[in-house]
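Saturday, quiet lab. Running sequence design on the structure tokens for the scaffold JK sent over.
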């Protein structure tokens, strides 16, 4: 497992590939999200589902589940990267960034910016021609954050829940 020091004033924080033992900490970060909190209320009863999802992500080279830990080994951030080949844009590969979370108490210290900058560099390294992400329409602060990093609000997204999901 390789640790990569995050840059840009984030001394003492390291990014690495997640391992199965990190699932609890990742879910805790995701559950501390006011908008998505209800989705994680049953986290203990769906542990097998999280583990199955982790193994599907971890076994596919198109995916990278990252965690950021502090110098004491505490997980303080996470994000998932997915490479998406496509015919659009002359066959360009896209990097999708999802589930970006930073511990509430550490926001504003540059960790999220360093994570996204690392993800963009990883997208370039892996040959992607475009980096994209979605953000809940209620997350106006997150939208400003992504815009400061160079992202533009270019599309309107739509979702459909399927029975049982």
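Result came back. Writing it out in full:
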């Amino acid at each position: 497992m390789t640790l990569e020091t995050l840059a840009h004033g984030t001394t003492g924080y390291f990014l690495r590939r997640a391992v199965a033992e990190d699932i609890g900490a990742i879910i805790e970060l995701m559950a501390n999200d006011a908008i998505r909190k209800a989705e994680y209320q049953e986290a203990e009863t769906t542990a097998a589902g999280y583990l199955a999802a982790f193994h599907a992500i971890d076994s596919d080279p198109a995916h990278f589940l990252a965690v950021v830990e502090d110098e004491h080994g505490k997980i303080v951030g996470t994000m998932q990267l997915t490479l998406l080949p496509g015919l659009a844009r002359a066959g360009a590969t896209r990097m999708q960034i999802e589930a970006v979370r930073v511990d509430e108490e550490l926001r504003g210290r540059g960790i999220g910016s360093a994570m996204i900058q690392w993800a963009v560099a990883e997208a370039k390294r892996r040959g992607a021609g475009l980096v994209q992400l979605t953000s809940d329409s209620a997350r106006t602060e997150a939208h400003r954050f992504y815009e400061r990093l160079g992202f533009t609000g270019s599309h309107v997204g739509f979702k459909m829940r399927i029975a049982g999901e």
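Notes for JK: The chain has one domain: 4-148. The CA atoms of residues 85 and 91 lie 7 Å apart. Ask whether to fix the surface positions before the next round.
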